[in-house]
Design a protein that fits this description.
The protein is α/β, with parallel strands linked by helices. Helix content is 28%, strand content 25%. It folds into two domains: 9-20 and 357-483, Glycosyl hydrolase domain, family 39 (Immunoglobulin-like); 23-354, Glycosidases (TIM Barrel), CATH 3.20.20. The longest helix is centred in the N-terminal third of the chain and has 19 residues, at 131-149.
Amino acid sequence: MHSHAKPPRFSCDFREANGSHLVHVWEHTVGSGHATLALRADWQRQLTRCRRELGFRHVRFHGVLSDDVGTLVREDGGLVYSLFNADQIFDFLLSIDMRPFVELSFMPTAIASGGDTVFHYRGNITPPKDYDSWETLIRKLADHWIERYGLAEVSRWFFEVWNEPNLKAFWTGSQADYFRLYAVTARALKQVHSSLRVGGPATADNAWIPEFMTYCEANAAPVDFVSTHHYPTDAFGKPGDDTTAQLAASKRSALRDEAAKVHQQARGKPLYYTEWSTSSNPFDDLHDEPFAAAFIAKTVMEAHGLVDGYSYWTFSDLFEENYFSSKPFHGGFGLLTIHGVPKPAYRAFELLHRLGDQIFPVVGEHDTVDVWATRRGRTAQVLLTNGALPRHPIRTEEVRLELSGLTGVRSAHIERIDDDHSNARRAWLSMGQPGSLLPRQVEALEGASLLVKEPVHLDARESQVTLDVTVPPQGTALLTLELA
């Protein structure tokens, strides 16, 4: 029998001694598809908004070395290094107080060993023809960026070697070839300056970590951090995947369980998940629905203490791996639509950004409901999700909260994300799913996406607060208490 039979009860004692430090690891980095997108004005506007409203500090994308960026090309029989486009991108990031999480990919055709490519923009996925030419490229990059931005700045960046080399779709070489590429890259960066941070193996599906760590130790290859990716579905989503079936077969806390395992395998090195999402399918309606908000909130809070950075894939539907979809809601990875309208997922990160920097233990357990309690100064927050993977039984729950250790509650309000709140896709459906949007329609969808603060009337007896919060299926709610 499900624990659904009786209403869920959760309690928390907010006394200072019970709290521990909460790092907002989900704000460390956010993903974007492809380097050249960063030259678009709309991409820049959207990222600026994410920086301001969600607190993201780094951005990671593919292909800064690909031919369309022009970093290294062959002209008139000779090699030409041009960092102009890459500089435009990094100049912009620094102008909005963000930094790159530099994914060193893909292979410039000029030094590639073959012609295999990935994605609509044809990123070359073959090893270098010779590793000396790759090493020269890496040293020139690092020297140039230090000259342009200063050593203190570039030392704050992260250099990640390649993307998902364990998948044939992204790397035609062997594991040994990748480890060699990693070692050559890491040594080249450290020869430029020991303070430059480098890591890998940037694998899909938490793969290769023990082998990578063993290789680096045996070969004295520098490693400052470990990076990998995970999705609850599969390692490499394709349009047309049955994401619902994949998710239904997944475990409810699969990402937490994987992160706990990899945390051990990282041997004390900082661990960065440089991609994760509700699924790896680039056309999945669940990305646009309240389901994603509840999944994000739960996943992020469960990662507490396990990871140093948790980079959601991606901040925008301005994205072109398979092709550029111009449909306003097409199930893209983004937190924002192509028009810059916030999805429920975006609003989840907005609520998460409001959480305090102290986290408190919450007592209580339920099949679908999870509760977290945080505090910053005179504000306490209680985050609730009522989430389940597809096909798992779920219903509206009346959640009883018993909160103690709060001195003088002056006011309280709640903000919600569910079918009826902060749900722009539903508003678009009710418009008749227009394929192109007029400015007034974009404005209406922005309005439908907004978080609304509803006042909560509390029975506050001294430092005790008891209240019931209704949370519908796949709903997320943030209760904020202002203290005297």
